[in-house]
TrEMBL record:
Protein's recorded name: Membrane associated rhomboid family serine protease
Membrane topology designation: Multi-pass membrane protein
Segments passing through the bilayer: 12-31, 68-86, 93-111, 117-138, 145-163, 169-189
InterPro entries in the cross-refs: Peptidase_S54_rhomboid_dom, Rhomboid-like_sf, Rhomboid_protease_S54
SUPFAM superfamilies, per database record: Rhomboid-like (SSF144091)
The organism of origin for this protein: Nocardioides daedukensis
Amino acid sequence: MSLEQRPETQTPRAVSAAVTIGSFVALLYVIEFVDMLMANRLDQQGIEPRETGGLLGIVFAPLLHGGWGHLIANTFPALVLGFLILLSGLRTWAGVSAVVWIIGGVGIWLTGGDNSVHIGASGLIFGWLTYLIVRGIFSRKVGQILLGVVILVMYGGLLWGVLPGQEGISWQGHLFGAVGGVIAAWLLVDRDSERR
């Protein structure tokens, strides 16, 4: 968002951002409800590392969750971080999400444990988090740098999740999602201010 924009153009963008991320999260709840009705059979459509059939899980894994507790834990960070990226526009959010989705999924597929299935939006959330933290470095925009610092202070503790530790938590998803967010910032950030 440039400083030249008038306040009346910012309000509709905020409303649009809230509706979009709210709809995305609502979709996750609908999918989890359907999964519950199917006795959690959808959860088997996640990423199975180094299995050819597990490659398709890259498409589905961020939409699936291992129960309501898993989804609820991802809800608030998804709403906040997704909303902040959507303030830059739907195209930016879609681009960042696509880069994180693919890099995170491929990273899990290559490095995840044998005989495991990886699901959940947390890799996407880690990617959104690192994107917001580092994009100001690439754009050289003071506002984005300051927002990155605030987000680092508020959510930086989550980044410990990229390390192996807790059983049943896909640290690979967190790690490669975070890597995807940095790469998305490098690839997609608006560098128009540098050219001006």
